[in-house]
């Protein structure tokens, strides 16, 4: 089962309303994406905590072999 880039962006935007978000479909299959998320909410968080926050925002879409999203390469940064 695949997921659309717009759905990934919507889930992330729900958690980080003012974030700058870019989603790229890496393989054209709707399962392998790269996401860049720049958010004020990341201030004071290290990179691991930032990534964990984004994964939580995806609400289980990456969980296990039945997950809609197989791979997500993340780039995160606190907004300046």
Which labels suit this protein?
GMP Synthetase, Chain A, domain 3; globular; single chain; 2 helices; 80 residues; alpha+beta; 28% helix
Output the helix-strand order. Answer: HEEHE
What CATH architecture would you give? 2-Layer Sandwich
Quote the CATH topology.
GMP Synthetase, Chain A, domain 3
Biggest beta sheet summary: 3 strands, mixed
Shape: globular
**What is the helix content?**
25-40%
Q: Strands across the major sheet, in which order? A: 1-2-3
- CA radius of gyration is 12 Å
Strand content: 25-35%
Q: Helical segment tally?
A: 2
Q: Please state the structural category.
A: alpha+beta
Mean pLDDT across residues: 93
Write a structural description.
With 80 residues, the chain is an alpha+beta fold. The chain has a single domain (5-78), classed as GMP Synthetase, Chain A, domain 3, CATH 3.30.300. It is built from two helices and three strands. The chain has helices spanning 5-15, 47-57; strands at 20-25, 32-39, 71-78. Strands 1-2-3 form a three-stranded mixed sheet, covered by helices on one side. Strand 1 (20-25) and strand 2 (32-39) form a beta hairpin. It is globular, with a radius of gyration of 12 Å. The mean pLDDT is 93.
